[in-house]
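Example 3.
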Amino acid sequence: MAQRGKTMKLLLCPSCFAREIDYLLAYDEEEDEYYCQRCCYAGKEENVLEFYKVFRNEKYKLYNVTY
Amino acid sequence: MSKMYVNVIHRADRGASMLEGIKFQQDEAHRAGIRTTILLSYEGLCDPDMVAYVKTQMGLGDEIGIHFHNMMCEEMLPYAESDEQALYLHSFSSKKKIVDRIFEVFQAEFGFVPTAIGGYIMDTETTLYIKEKYPQVKTSITNCFEEGVKMFEGNNGSWYLFSDGGPWGAFYPSKYHYLAPGRDKESSIDLVALPHLNRDMVLALTSRDDYFSSHPANVMRAKANDGPNSPYMHRFVDQWIEQKNYNGFSYYNVFVSTPWVVPGNIFVDNFEHARALYIDSLQYLKGKAEQGEVEFVTMSEFADFYKTEIGAGAAEVNLWKDILAGTKRQTFWYADSYFRAAIDLNIGGVICDFRPYVGELSGDTGPDTDILWNGNYPYVIAREHRGHSGHRCVIKYGDASASIEGKRAKGRIERTHDGKQQLVVEPISIQVGDLEVTLESAFTFTGDGRILIERRVLELSDPTAEITLTEVLDGCYGTTVYPEDMRGIELTVLSHQEEKHTIPFTYRSKEARVAAPTEVKAVIPQIRTQLSLTPEGEADWGSVKEGVLFKPYYKLTLEKKVQLGGVLSSWLNVEKR
Ligand SMILES: [Zn+2]
């Protein structure tokens, strides 16, 4: 397992993504948090992933539905 | 003790619902001990019930003036040249007729010329005409800070208001552009320009600032409230009070027009909550007034204060922190008659927005002008619109390089011994290859069209290392998110040995570089502006480079080799061309 905070992951800003804007989150080692340089979003990796999930479930209602 | 001066402004429009709404607002203001400024729209002036009510409020000591929104109605059609709803988008001849009609009706009803007026945008030709014809006018709400492209996109292209690039506070407007302050009394219009609302000075760049303003129902529109509560709004007031520590005073206005506190507004999910938030805002300010931090005044009373105590050509600064998401983000702003600059501390202290006013461009809008609807003041740097633009510092060590942008910094405002405003960016440590560099930056605003930028190397993990500091300015020009035609721009680099290279901008990625530079500059005839970097003392290299169509920017650089304790000092200058 990668040591937390030592390996910066490539995560897109979920708040910018909600506006359909691609923006890679920067990483603050001192705070062990990801933050957006474009908007005021900041959060831990799990916050980011949760934001994607909520967004996906609310907006793409059929993304996981098979017919 | 310095104070925050607060105007509570109400707009009087037509109809029973508006009358009921303004009665609520007036009663609540009076209950909080506030005398208001009521600005009557033409529709309001055409409503006898509203006029009668406003007269009763005048009797209670409130100020009465004119607002130029809600003027296009049946009663105006015989006077105007079109049914355009925005005064600032009429032709000059139509603007004059509308203005005269409204003043005429106002004088007929009230028997005097008002000293306080306002609109969303009041452009220069309109304001000059008003001052010539009605010299009694002391103050006018003339602009909506940073409302432009993002707001237009956010409201589905329905609101044609482009007022991006001006100061955020009070100022004496120049005689050429409604967003550019005048340099002195002679070059200014004798009237105090006020903003339509105070804005969140971080979210003004990162978000829609019509959501986050001194307008509790707008905050509700942003869903930054929990029913009738919005602690954010309290922090917002606190941040504006803090600005008085940097400028000697602060200005704040609460201007909620009546449609926001009556049922039926699509942005208000519950109008009772909108009312509760309105009351809460006034009561919170009242508490601050009781503590001596706030003074309630009318618009004209504030204009008197500003005229006596501040005057034309004054510089203003603002240091704002993120009070909505609570991140480390801070934005610093500076404005005077030469330029407006914003520095993003969230990316190490990069100049993220820069508007040179020296070109003295016109901002008059209307079908008889070249710019039509576009009242934005042109930028040369605007990261929110043109992501690659900015002025930053890059550190090189061997083959490795790193920019200050990768670090979140904290800023503080100081004054130099001779009273100049200064932003100090507290030290940040940056990893450059295997070397850790601790760098402090300071921006000094000398009030003559220049910024002194100093980079100081405080620590190096290898104290014997030599590094290169480079100031990099990636510029462009424009007023929207799209690039403008860069042909005509000339890039020049000059050296101590009188070596000179000039590159006309042809999108061919040409570059010129000299040792011992004295100046690197871009002359942008489209905005009659020259932008340059000059070393204070020595620099080792200077360069200019033109961009290509896929990256339409010009690049100016100055670089210097330094060791521990070394400093790179340079000037960013703007001049009229
Ligand atoms: Zn973002």
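The domain at 338-576 of chain B is CATH 2.70.98.10 (Beta-galactosidase; Chain A, domain 5). Chain B has a mean pLDDT of 97.
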